[in-house]
Amino acid sequence: MIQKRLIGVVTVRDGWAVQSFGYGRYLPLGRPEILVENLDRWGADEILLQVIDATRQGRGPDMALLEQIGKRGLSTPLIYAGGVRSAADAVAIVAAAADRVVVDALIRDNASEVIKAGEQLGNQAMIGSLPLSIEHGAVRWFDYRTRTSEPMSEELLELLEAGVLSEALVIDWKHEGQPGGFDHALLDALPKGVPVIAFGGLSSAPQLVQALKMPHVVAVAVGNFLSYREHAIQAFKAELLGVPLRPAAYQQTLHA
Amino acid sequence: MIPRKTIGIVDYGVGNHASVWRALHGLGYRCRVSAEPAVLDDTDLLVLPGVGAFGAAMEALHRHDLVEYLRGQSSSGKPFIGLCLGMQLLADVSLEHGLTAGLGLIPGQVVPFDQARWHIGWNSIEVVGNDPIFRPSDGKSMYFNHSYVFQAAPEYQACLARLDSAFPVGVRRGNLVGLQFHPEKSQGAGHMMLKNVVEGLCA
């Protein structure tokens, strides 16, 4: 049986891993490659590396960071987000180190490049980032470049329904970094059958269990709340009872 | 002193070789990443990795003049492992984006996964029979990321995974092995399996 996933998130800004609070306030944590390595050692089911200032600064994907991580050789699948401008970027990201690619601005700017990336990498490699909120009972899709929100576009919904995007990363951007802040109502915002990864303010085991028990939620992603203790992935997994999750894994040396 | 085994990672421009290299290197093997037959010849085992679409990958193998080389290596009995898309390329044909001929090394065809749109994440594998190179991995969780399945002839199916029903995720024909999942990204369980397969094929 396919298992649901606990994804560890490393957020990068100005080249440093940071704790993020609503994508508006940041605290430095250290070098991103070290945090990624920790998650790899702790047995995360996937690692999401999100470079949050790449698109705004027009830099494109952080290939230097990806190559650095590639050289270290993770034994955990890596998802990369940030600065993806084209199908060629997505292919380069996978060639460097990642297994899957998150697109956000590219969905708004050039959906045909998202389709092209899926044709080259397989749609299973493509994930759509959806920073959402609910305002006056309506679901709003946040554009972090303009700091404005609008209803989800027809084009976005088509990409999800057609399976061009294999999973939707639903981000509660308003409550991101706030303990217990995640609004579970966001998980019902998408068309039926779209697999969802929940992220943003998920901090406690009961919250994670509530999300993971929803049939279309295939994964939960946790960022800040993994930074407060060692081996946080295993500790969370030990508390997530009653959901089909891979048991906690512990690194071992295989050759003497 | 027993010499370290040398593994040739076939570099045809498709996918990420670094994680395969790192996993094998971490297991104690010497690795050569190349598209040059002269370099690959001087190795104990070949690994064919791959991600993406079947047609584009076969095109890349043709462009690098590797199709006949890999067929020759396989028929000579050289140990050979295909990973993920690299497993699917061992098939006769794929239906992904139209009909594309594969390497034709293991009878069967690559077809759309019929139990879900994708098979993404960690799933446990079931080993068919008592093949010692696979048996220790029975029941272990591996990382999958695919939407097509290699329906190999039953006599070559070595490992299965299951959603509603079982489907092949590991194949073996003599010294040729294909694994649909990513052992290099499946942490301790995947690395242990890689080691068992390499050692078993090179024994």
Write the layout of secondary structure elements.
The complex is a heterodimer of chains A (256) and B (203).
Chain A lengths: L4 E9 L2 E6 L3 E6 L1 H11 L3 E6 L11 H10 L5 E4 L5 H10 L3 E4 L1 H5 L1 H11 L4 E10 L2 E6 L4 E3 L3 H8 L5 E6 L23 E4 L5 H8 L4 E6 L9 H8 L17
Parallel strand pairs in A: 1-4, 1-12, 4-5, 5-6, 6-7, 7-10, 10-11, 11-12
Antiparallel strand pairs in A: 1-2, 2-3, 7-8, 8-9
Helix pairs in contact in A: 1-2, 3-5
Chain B lengths: L5 E5 L6 H10 L3 E5 L2 H5 L3 E4 L5 H10 L3 H9 L4 E4 L1 H4 L4 E2 L5 E2 L6 E5 L6 E6 L1 E2 L13 E6 L1 E5 L4 E6 L3 E8 L2 E4 L7 H16 L1
Parallel strand pairs in B: 1-2, 1-3, 3-4, 4-14, 5-7
Antiparallel strand pairs in B: 5-6, 7-11, 8-10, 9-12, 12-13, 13-14
Describe the structure.
The complex is a heterodimer of chains A (256) and B (203). With 256 residues, chain A is of the alpha/beta class. Chain A has a single domain, classed as Aldolase class I (TIM Barrel). In chain A, 28% of the residues lie in helices and 27% in strands. In chain A, strands 1-4-5-6-7-10-11-12 form an eight-stranded parallel barrel, surrounded by four helices. In chain A, α1 (32-42) packs parallel to α2 (63-72) and α3 runs parallel beside α5. Chain A is globular, with a radius of gyration of 17 Å. With 203 residues, chain B is of the alpha/beta class. In chain B, the strands form three sheets. An eight-stranded mixed sheet of chain B has the order 2-1-3-4-14-13-12-9. The radius of gyration of chain B is 15 Å and the shape is globular. The model of chain B has no long low-confidence stretch (mean pLDDT 95).
By CATH, the topology of chain A is: TIM Barrel
- What helical percentage do the residues of chain A reach? 25-40%
* Gyration radius of chain A, rounded: 17 Å
Span between N and C termini of chain B?
A: 16 Å
Low-pLDDT residue intervals, each spanning 5 or more residues of chain A:
none
CA(first)-CA(last) distance of chain A: 33 Å
SS summary, helix count of chain A: 8
H/E series of chain A: EEEHEHEHEHHEEEHEEHEH
Number of strands of chain B: 14
- Measured by DSSP, the beta-strand proportion of chain A falls in 25-35%
> What is the mean pLDDT of chain B?
95
